[in-house]
Structures are given as structure tokens and as C-alpha cells.
Specification:
The chain has 616 residues and is α/β, with parallel strands linked by helices. It is built from 26 helices and 14 strands. The chain has helices at residues 2-13, 40-45, 50-56, 61-78, 80-83, 103-115, 145-163, 179-191, 202-205, 215-218, 222-239, 241-255, 259-283, 297-310, 344-359, 373-385, 420-432, 442-462, 474-477, 485-501, 506-515, 517-528, 534-540, 543-552, 556-576, 584-607, and strands spanning 25-26, 36-38, 86-92, 96-101, 129-133, 167-174, 289-292, 313-315, 321-323, 334-336, 363-367, 394-397, 402-404, 470-472. The strands form four sheets. The chain has a five-stranded parallel beta sheet with strand order 7-6-5-11-12. The chain has a four-stranded antiparallel beta sheet with strand order 1-2-4-3. Helix 8 (179-191) crosses helix 13 and helix 22 crosses helix 26. The chain starts with a helix and ends in a 9-residue tail after the last helix.
Length: 616
């Protein structure tokens, strides 16, 4: 709990020569080694002068740790309020100081989980206003695995930030113009027509649209229809110089606002958007705002002209505009091509300015893969040069590459790709095998399979450190015994089942406690001493600090790891302690552990975008 960490930091830093910045607290991997640990003695020892060491009579960090622990335990024993939270401090290893929390603290924190409907949330970030751009699916293709990790990281950070009180704006960018969309337009004109007599030109198409196939006629989802045409067009573009020239001219005609070209452009985009929405609905995606590139690309050109007049951008002999980023230690990049057409960076400059004008946020975040690190660094630097924003306001949140176990790198351009919906369908089909047909109706099985399958995919991705590369493994993702979403969902369902058998809900438990909280807490403390519950209670209280740290470190995997450890601890408790015992006080204590665990698992999975099931 964040408050406990503050108390411990204050306690330690009250000793001579110790600054708050020197106090780093961690949870030992083994609960037998304490609930918190710090290496402050080792850090302090290295800064002591020989005279100070002699004065303190210490020859090693361990000696200093014993010196500090003696003082700490004196402070704990002399403060009744503090001793109800911290039991004692001990020295470990070469000079670590381990703190053990008191039974009273564990019982009270368990009760707080039960009574506080917003346990885990905080107002720490209430004065912050952040923006996050994530996912931004390309309208020239169906959403594939690369989009999936982007989406899951972006959505989980969005929820985590909101949980600690930050005002968050979630956005996407619709890159709906440029050479990629022109290729798609060409692919539609050439490869979707019903017969060869139809001319592959916008002017012919606009009056003969019935001569072109629809996704329904080809038996494809709209986004897969678009994806297939784009792949074919890309190959055509690469192997035929005349096609390349024609496609590039489509970009020019579009920028000149050719009415027929714009009608064709809207047609292919509509197909793409229809398919995207089907995928985004399954992922429970949320955006507060979507920017469309065609609405701001001209502003990008205007900013380029301003950069030229300020002397921060340079014009080459062929007319192209280039950056000047030597003082940032970055290579230069083309800002506008010699033919006058825009590039991604041109639009990104404009969009960043528009974001700042619209939101006036403190910080702007781009959830984008590592391959865009240089491009974003260049864009951020040019933004500062143009006076759009300070570098400190702009941040790239990268993530590792993702592949499927046993397969190589995927490329949508050559058609060797696994789409998000294909993966979700595979997971759903596999999840179907986990469900007992005799216990549920067909509609219940359908709903459960979707929740289990989609949850398994999400968790398998988010449990991996954000910056780490990963190979997705469907078998382990759907395991009921390992570190997986089905394991967590099953633990929640088990806890819910226990509460149903006891004919009591978390709400009833709350009402019972609020009626006579002090009496019930005393009874729980007695029950705590008679049960082996430290494993669960030693993890429950950590939830707020885990959410806090996961949010500020941009690391959903920390929350996933915590939930797995909590589920393990609860299942161990369940396997060794009967919950529904005759003794009323013991029964109540164990039911509260059950209800509190279920509450945190449900809340934590929500922050990861995963639904729970009452039965499983």
C-alpha cells in the first residue's frame, strides 16, 4: 500500500544522515524474508568517511544495518500507532533491512479491501492531464498481430492512468491518404472488377460501379477484402513501372482534390472501416477522439513553409525540404518531397500542433513499435524547433516485436500475416474445449468461449514486459494451470462459487462490518492467528502500489504478475484451509479473504481489458 511505503520511508529517513531519496523499498520474493526490504544501509555505508565509520563503530554495511535496525525497532516499540502497522525490522544478508508488518495491519488491510469499493484507485494524478495515441489501424489492410499488442498496451495504460486519477484522452490517427491508400485504390480498380472489359480508371468506375465486386459477393469480410486487394496491388506496384507511375499520380490527383478520385478513395475506405469496427468491438476498444489525416495534411505543408522562413528547415536543390537536427544528435530526414507531396512526418507535425491546441495536455504519448523510434525522435525535435512543443512533453511508448511461436516475422505487405480475428477465433475454439457441455446452454458456451479466448490472448501479451520481444503460444495462453487468463478467471469463478454456497455476497459482508466494525475486526484478528493466511494477506494489501507503479512505469505486465501471484496464494490457501467451517468467526474471516481476492482479481483484470466469469 502506498501509505505504508510512505510511513516506512519517513521512519527510515528520520535516522541521521539518511535522505528520503536514498530509501528504496522492495517486496522480497520470499515472504519469510519480510514484507518490505531496503538496501539503505549499503547505500549509506559507501558514502561514510573513515571518521564517520569510526564514530559509528561500523566496519561493513552489515554492521551499519544492525546499528540502524536497533534504532528503528526502538522507534517502532515507542510508537503505539506505528507498532500496529510494523511488527519489527531485521538485518539480512550483507546489509539488507527487512521489515515485517503486523497481524493487525494485515487484518485491517483485508477489511479495507472489502469495504472500499475503489480500493486500488488513487487521486495521485488528479492534477495531470495526459493524452495517449494508440492502435491507429491502417485503412489499407485488416488489423494484424502488430496492431494487437499496440492496442492492448494502449488500452491498459489508458485504464491504469485513469485509476490513479490522471485525466486521460485516448486517441487514434486514421492515416487515410498517401501512397499506401493509392495502392489500395489501384488494387480495387484492377483486381476487384468482374470482367476485363471494365477500364481500371476512376473515371470509368464512377459510372459503372456495379461492374466491381463487393466483399459480400467475394465471400469476404470487408477488411479482408481490402487487405487482399492491397497485397495484390503492392506486388503490381513493385513489378511494373507503369503501375508505379499511375499509382503515384493518384496521390497527386487526390491532393489536387480530383472529385472522382475522392469518390473512389471514400469507397475503399468505407470497406476498411466496416471491417475494423468488427475487430475493435471484440477488443472492447475505446477512443475519445479519432483524427483523420486528410483533414490536417495541408496544415503540415504550412508548417514546413514556416520552418523554412525560420531557418530551421532547409530546401535542397531538387526542391525537397529537409530537417536540420545536428544539435539533437539525430540524422536529418525529408519533411516534404520534391514533387510537393507530404510525408508521414509532415502530417505528424500538423497533428501534434492540433492535439496541443485542442487538449492543452501536460504530456502526449505515442504507443508505437520500436521501428519508429528514430522517426518519432526526429518529429519531436522538429516540433521543438517550430515552437509546437517541448521535448519533455512528447514521449514514445515502445513495445517489443511479436511473432507466433514456430513462425517467422510477419509482413502484411507480402501476405504472410495472422490477423487479429483469426487469432481470437483460434483461441475461442480452443477455449470451447475447456467448457463442460452438460452444465451450460449453447448461448452460455458461446459467450464463455469468447470471454475465455479473448482474455487468454490479451493476458498472454500483456504479461510479457512491454519492451520485450515475444512469441505468442496459444497452448500456454489457454492453460488452466499456468500464468494465464483462464487460470485467473477460474480462480475468480471458484471464489464466486464459494460465496454462493455460503449464501453471502460481498455487499452483505460489507453491511455486516459497517454495523459493528471494531468488534468484527477484533474477531478477525483472533481468527487470523489460527489460520495459515499470510500468503494471501501478504499480497492483497500491495494492490494499490502495484496499480500505481504499473501506471507510472507504463508496465501492465507488473499488474499481470501480481494477479498471478495473488491467484496462486489464494488457491494454496483454499487447498489447505476449508472455508465454510462451523466456527462463525473463522468462517467469516475466510469468506472475507475469498471476497477480497475475487474483488481484486476482477478489478485487476478489468485494468488489463479482461472480463471475468461467475461460473466456469
Amino acid at each position: 500500500m502506498i501509505e505504508i511505503e510512505k510511513q516506512l520511508t519517513k521512519l527510515i529517513s528520520s535516522l541521521p544522515k539518511i535522505r528520503k531519496s536514498d530509501v528504496i523499498l522492495e517486496h522480497p520474493a520470499n515472504q519469510e524474508h519480510g514484507d518490505y526490504s531496503t538496501n539503505v544501509a549499503m547505500r549509506l555505508f559507501s558514502s561514510l568517511t573513515p571518521e564517520q565509520k569510526l564514530q559509528l563503530q561500523v566496519d561493513s554495511p552489515r554492521d551499519l544495518a544492525f546499528n540502524l535496525v536497533e534504532k528503528l525497532n526502538d522507534l517502532i516499540e515507542s510508537n503505539a500507532e506505528l507498532s500496529e502497522v510494523i511488527l519489527k525490522a531485521e538485518v539480512a544478508g550483507p546489509g539488507f533491512i527487512n521489515f515485517y508488518l503486523s497481524p493487525t495491519f494485515f487484518v485491517r488491510s483485508m477489511v479495507e479491501v472489502l469495504l472500499n469499493d475503489k480500493f486500488g484507485e488513487s487521486t495521485d494524478g488528479k492534477n495531470l492531464n495526459w493524452e495517449i495515441e494508440h492502435t491507429s489501424p491502417n485503412p489499407n489492410k485488416a488489423m494484424h498481430l502488430g496492431h494487437l499488442r499496440n492496442n492492448l498496451v494502449g488500452m491498459s495504460l489508458y485504464k491504469l492512468w485513469k485509476a490513479i486519477g490522471i485525466t486521460v484522452i485516448s486517441e487514434a490517427v486514421d492515416n487515410n491518404r498517401g501512397i499506401a491508400i493509392a495502392k489500395l485504390m489501384w488494387g480495387y480498380l484492377k483486381f476487384a472488377k468482374k470482367n476485363e472489359k471494365a477500364e481500371s480508371t476512376p473515371i470509368y468506375w464512377v459510372d459503372h460501379q456495379s461492374q466491381w465486386q463487393t466483399p459480400e459477393e467475394m465471400g469476404l469480410r470487408p477488411d479482408l477484402f481490402v487487405d487482399e486487394l492491397y497485397v495484390k496491388a503492392s506486388a503490381d506496384f513493385d513489378h511494373d513501372k507503369n503501375v508505379e507511375k499511375y499509382v503515384r499520380n493518384l496521390v497527386v490527383e487526390w491532393e489536387e482534390k480530383n472529385e472522382v478520385v475522392w469518390q473512389l478513395w471514400q469507397k475503399v475506405l468505407d470497406y476498411s472501416y466496416q471491417g475494423q469496427q468488427l475487430t475493435l468491438k471484440r477488443l472492447d476498444n475505446q477512443w475519445d477522439y479519432v483524427w483523420h489525416e486528410h483533414e490536417h495534411y495541408q496544415l503540415g505543408k504550412d508548417l514546413v513553409e514556416q520552418g523554412l522562413s525560420k531557418g530551421v528547415l532547409l530546401k535542397l536543390d531538387d526542391g525537397a525540404i529537409v530537417s536540420d537536427l545536428e544539435k539533437y544528435g539525430l540524422t536529418d530526414t525529408i519533411i516534404k518531397k520534391s514533387d510537393g507531396t507530404s510525408l508521414y512526418i509532415t502530417q505528424d507535425l500538423a497533428l501534434t500542433k492540433l492535439k496541443i491546441q485542442k487538449h492543452k495536455a501536460d504530456k502526449y504519448h505515442w504507443v508505437v513499435g520500436p521501428e519508429q523510434k528514430l522517426a518519432l525522435s526526429q518529429m519531436f525535435a522538429v516540433c521543438e524547433q517550430l515552437g509546437i512543443a517541448k521535448l519533455s512533453q512528447l514521449e514514445h511508448i515502445s513495445y517489443g516485436y511479436m511473432s507466433i511461436k514456430g513462425q517467422g516475422k510477419m509482413s502484411s505487405r507480402i501476405g504472410n500475416v495472422l490477423y487479429i480475428d483469426q487469432l481470437l477465433d483460434l483461441a475461442k475454439e480452443k477455449a470451447r474445449e475447456l467448457i463442460n457441455d452438460e452444465k451450460y446452454t449453447s448461448s452460455e458456451i458461446e459467450l464463455m468461449s469468447e470471454k475465455i479466448g479473448v482474455g487468454a490472448v490479451k493476458y498472454a501479451i500483456l504479461k510479457v514486459g512491454r519492451a520485450s520481444d515475444m512469441a505468442f503460444d496459444l497452448e500456454s495462453a489457454l492453460s488452466l494451470e499456468g500464468n494465464s487468463s483462464p487460470y485467473l478467471q477460474y480462480t475468480y469463478a471458484r471464489a464466486s462459487s464459494i460465496l454462493r454456497k455460503a449464501d453471502i455476497s460481498a455487499q452483505k459482508l460489507q453491511e455486516l462490518f459497517r454495523a459493528e466494525e471494531s468488534i468484527q475486526t477484533k474477531k478477525l484478528l483472533e481468527a487470523y492467528n489460527d489460520t495459515d493466511s499470510k500468503g494471501v494477506l501478504g499480497i492483497l494489501y500491495q494492490y494499490p502500489s502495484v496499480v500505481f507503479n504499473s501506471a507510472y512505469n507504463y508496465e501492465p505486465s507488473s499488474l499481470a504478475t501480481y494477479l498471478y501471484l495473488l491467484a496462486q496464494a489464494f488457491n494454496s490457501f483454499y487447498n489447505h484451509q476449508q472455508v465454510l467451517v462451523d466456527n462463525e468467526d473463522d468462517r467469516l474471516f475466510r469468506l472475507i479473504i475469498t471476497a477480497s481476492t475475487a474483488k481484486i482479481i476482477k478489478g485487476g483484470l478489468y485494468l488489463l481489458g479482461i472480463e471475468t466469469l461467475e461460473k466456469m
